[in-house]
Amino acid sequence: MLGNVKRYSRIYLAYGYTDLRYGIDGLARVVQDHFSLDPFQKGCLFLFCGRRTDRIKGLLWEGDGFVLVYKRLEAGRFQWPRTASEAREITPEQFTWLMQGLAVEQKKRIQEVAPKRTC
Description:
Blueprint: E1 10-14, H1 24-33, E2 44-49, E3 55-61, E4 66-72, E5 87-90, H2 92-99
Parallel strand pairs: 1-2
Antiparallel strand pairs: 1-5, 2-3, 3-4
Protein name: IS66 family insertion sequence element accessory protein TnpB
C-alpha cells in the first residue's frame, strides 16, 4: 500500500525528527500546527521519521477517515533529510527513491536538454 505512488495526489515529507510515538491525532496536529498544512486533503500522504531511520509513519486522509501506515526496514535505513524542520512536497520519483533507500535530493543527475539538431 505505501509503495503505490499513483494512489497519492501529493506527498509531503516532514524533514527533521518526529516523535513516532504519536498516533493519528498527534501527527495530524503536527501537520496543522508545525507545517501549516491541512491534514484533511484527500489523497495527500504525509511521511514522518524519528531518530532511528529504519522506520517511518505515513498519515493519509481518505475522505471518511485517516489511514496510519508504519514501515520498518529489517535491513538498511531510509535516507531521511535532517537539515530543516519543515514539510516539503516531493515528487513521485523522489518517493520511489526514498522507498528504495536512496536520498530524496540526488547530488548528481543527468539533466534534460533540448535537441540542437534533428537526425
